[in-house]
């Protein structure tokens, strides 16, 4: 028996990729009953792949489904009763062999809750394990680098920045590693908050590392931080402040001499702050006393990459991750349940809010023309604009080696006859060749 979506092709009815089932029946009456039962039943469609069809998965489920009735329910009976959950064995039976659509909803509700519960338990256990790790307390120092930096600021911090900084300073003062997510839209002052945290760690004798996803962003952070700190970013250098520290940049494209000097500054402790890309995770990078790791655009990094950088400290360093992506509270609890969350919900005084617009170019082409006009207007006003384009899926790979050189070098032709010259393959023979005519 076949089942699937019927369609018309070349004036004929067809079933595209139908599912089928072999029915065991000794006579026509049994076959009719089997067909009626099959047609009126809710059938689960399992996600198939090229090597494994949905019906093969269904057969495997049929083989093990009776064993699922002996599954031990991890939830206490009181919790199930309070939330009205179906017992686990019954939920497994209903989701694979539902009698009604209500059975499907009940089973899915129970299994979804189990998935979320297991994730939250894992995050809670990880959060508890982190609180048991020892870490060096990094408390602010009076008349230190942070106070000198705050004294030269030409503006006042927002209430949100003050509040979040207080939360971070409280975490840094504990003897357990901080795990905090700093959330705020572009222009809300996250970099300023992170810099003040890094200066606090440097005051306490440690080092701070900021991890950026791209070299452009790392260079931008390095430039903005050194400009904000001024002479305080030139510690140990001629003309630098006595209370200052050295701020270095470490990326994969740096020259050998500059890279060697940056690595030396880190291992000797000469540099209190380092800003870099994935190059910070390399085995050759060693720190004198890594006390704080700041991860910008945290969604661009995996947990393994963050942990690889944190493992470079003598003790587990404090961790501050930043994101400009608005994250709902429920999503933050699900994905970042092992992190405390701080939100910057204010923009500094005098800063315009960020405006985001969606241009339906396909439906309204004139909107796209207006977008380019806005780009031209900003450029005329002395501003900059950048366009992000996806890579073309049809881009052909460029040939390499001798094959590439042959393609780039077209055959030489004589100016009169249009025939190939004797030297179209051997450049050394051109000096001896004579042009015809």
From TrEMBL:
GO terms for biological process: DNA repair. Residues 395-419 have a biased composition (Basic residues). Pfam families: DEAD. Residues 171-344 form the Helicase ATP-binding domain. Keywords: ATP-binding, DNA damage, DNA repair, DNA-binding, Helicase, Hydrolase, Nucleotide-binding. Coiled coil: none annotated. SUPFAM superfamilies: P-loop containing nucleoside triphosphate hydrolases. One of its GO terms (molecular function) is DNA binding. Residues 392-437 are annotated as: Disordered. PANTHER family: ATP-DEPENDENT DNA HELICASE HOMOLOG RECG, CHLOROPLASTIC. This is Helicase ATP-binding domain-containing protein.
């Amino acid at each position: 028996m076949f089942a699937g979506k019927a369609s018309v092709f070349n004036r004929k009815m067809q079933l595209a990729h139908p599912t089928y089932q072999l029915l065991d029946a000794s006579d026509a009456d049994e076959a009719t009953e089997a067909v009626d039962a099959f047609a009126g039943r809710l059938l689960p469609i399992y996600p198939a792949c090229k090597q494994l069809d949905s019906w093969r998965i269904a057969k495997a489920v049929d083989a093990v489904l009776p064993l699922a009735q002996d599954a031990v329910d991890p939830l206490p009976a009181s919790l199930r009763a309070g939330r009205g959950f179906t017992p686990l064995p019954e939920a497994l039976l209903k989701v694979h062999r539902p009698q009604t659509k209500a059975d499907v909803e009940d089973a899915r509700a129970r299994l979804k809750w189990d998935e979320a519960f297991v994730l939250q338990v894992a995050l809670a256990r990880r959060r508890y394990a982190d609180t048991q790790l020892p870490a060096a307390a990094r408390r602010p120092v009076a008349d230190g680098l942070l106070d000198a930096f705050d004294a030269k600021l030409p503006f006042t911090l927002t209430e949100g920045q003050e509040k979040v900084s207080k939360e971070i300073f409280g975490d840094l003062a504990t003897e357990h590693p901080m795990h905090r997510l700093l959330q705020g839209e572009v222009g809300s002052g996250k970099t300023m908050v992170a810099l003040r945290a890094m200066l606090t760690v440097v005051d306490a004798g440690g080092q701070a590392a900021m991890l950026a996803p791209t070299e452009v962003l790392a260079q931008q952070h390095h430039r903005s931080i050194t400009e904000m700190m001024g002479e305080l970013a030139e510690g140990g250098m001629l003309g630098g402040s006595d209370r200052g520290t050295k701020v270095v940049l470490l990326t994969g494209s740096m020259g050998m001499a500059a890279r060697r000097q940056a690595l030396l500054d880190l291992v000797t402790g000469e540099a209190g702050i380092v800003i870099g890309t994935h190059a910070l995770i390399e085995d050759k990078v060693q720190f004198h006393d890594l006390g704080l790791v700041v991860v910008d655009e945290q969604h661009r990094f995996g947990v393994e990459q963050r942990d690889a950088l944190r493992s470079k400290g003598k003790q587990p360093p404090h961790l501050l991750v930043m994101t400009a992506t608005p994250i709902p509270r429920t999503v933050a609890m699900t994905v970042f349940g092992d992190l405390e969350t701080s939100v910057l919900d204010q923009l500094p005084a005098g800063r315009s809010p960020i405006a985001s617009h969606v241009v339906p170019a396909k439906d309204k082409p004139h909107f796209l023309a207006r977008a380019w006009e806005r780009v031209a207007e900003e450029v005329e006003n002395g501003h900059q604009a950048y366009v992000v384009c996806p890579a073309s899926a049809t881009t052909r790979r460029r040939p390499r080696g001798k094959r590439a050189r042959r393609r780039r070098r077209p055959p030489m032709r004589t100016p009169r006859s249009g025939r190939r010259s004797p030297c179209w393959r051997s450049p050394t023979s051109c000096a001896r060749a004579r042009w015809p005519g």
